[in-house]
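I am writing to request your help with a piece of structural work I have in hand. What I wish to show you is a protein chain and, alongside it, a tokenised description of its three-dimensional fold. Could you please explain, in whatever detail you think fit, how the structure tokens follow from the sequence? You will find the record immediately after this paragraph.
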Amino acid sequence: MFKLLLTLSFLLVACYTDLKTRNVSNKITFTWLLIALVIAGYDTYQRGSSYLLIVVLSWAAMSILTFLLFAVKILGGADVKSLISLSLLYPQDVFLILVLAFLLTICVKKFKDVSNFPFMLPLTGGFILTVFVTP
């Protein structure tokens, strides 16, 4: 429950600053990334080496994917760091979160003409939906 509330807090702060200034500061994203590393380390200590493999694979795959999406200007820097943090905290759910975020973005753009839509909003929505979908 702590991890869920912490994640939601960071995502909501990032949404607010992204909407207000169109920029999420590195203080927010790097703080979250550091906290995610600590929590992932604790989770790995509790669950064992097989969980470490899942976390490392999730982190590596998400790092590569988000780098590519950043390189072609689909994602911004805060989006990348947030997804990498999510890959550490929720390694088995992060790809579902990303897919749902893209689906939410498509839905919003279908019904509303927005050229520069902050991805942090659907990313947060994807996280919230994933919390309700997965056990």
About this structure: The chain has a mean pLDDT of 89. The two ends are 13 Å apart (CA to CA).
